[in-house]
Structures are given as structure tokens and as C-alpha cells.
Design a protein that fits this description.
single chain, 84 residues, mainly alpha, elongated
Length: 84
């Protein structure tokens, strides 16, 4: 092998290394999502009633208590300045 072949091989290894570094977080995230999906599916098949799958969730099961941001905004609105 001469110098050109060695440089080409090093360049190829560098490009592949960069590609792996860029793709690795995405692949780890996909594997994590698949594991979570499998655990949810297995819990649903085991008959746990607290596991909600898909569109079975009703809107009445959501919390009706306003968030802190809404309480803060309501308090700020009530303190309007009166111009004379």
C-alpha cells in the first residue's frame, strides 16, 4: 500500500466515525422508546387497570385545577391601574 491508499483508508474511517457519533444518540433513543413501548404493552396485557393505552383516556380524567401560571395571570389582571 502506498501513501494514497493509507490516506484514503484514514479518511474513510474518519467519515464513518463521525457518522457513528452523529447517529448514535438517535439509535439509543429509538431503542429506549421501543423498550418503553414494550413495557407498556406488556403491562396492558397483564391487566393492570392503571395503564391507559391509546384513545381510551376520557377528557374527564384530566385535571381541572388551573396551573400556577393561570392563577398568577389572573392576579395580575385584577390589579389594573385606573387613569384619572
Amino acid at each position: 500500500m502506498d501513501t494514497t491508499h493509507i490516506e484514503t483508508l484514514l479518511n474513510l474511517a474518519t467519515v464513518l466515525g463521525i457518522f457513528v457519533l452523529l447517529a448514535l444518540p438517535s439509535l439509543i433513543g429509538m431503542a429506549h422508546d421501543r423498550r418503553i413501548d414494550r413495557q407498556i404493552r406488556e403491562a396492558g396485557e397483564a391487566g393492570h387497570p392503571e395503564v391507559v393505552l391509546g384513545d381510551d383516556q376520557k377528557s374527564s380524567s384530566r385535571s381541572t385545577v388551573p396551573s400556577t401560571a393561570i392563577w398568577y395571570a389572573d392576579g395580575r389582571r385584577s390589579k389594573k391601574l385606573v387613569s384619572s
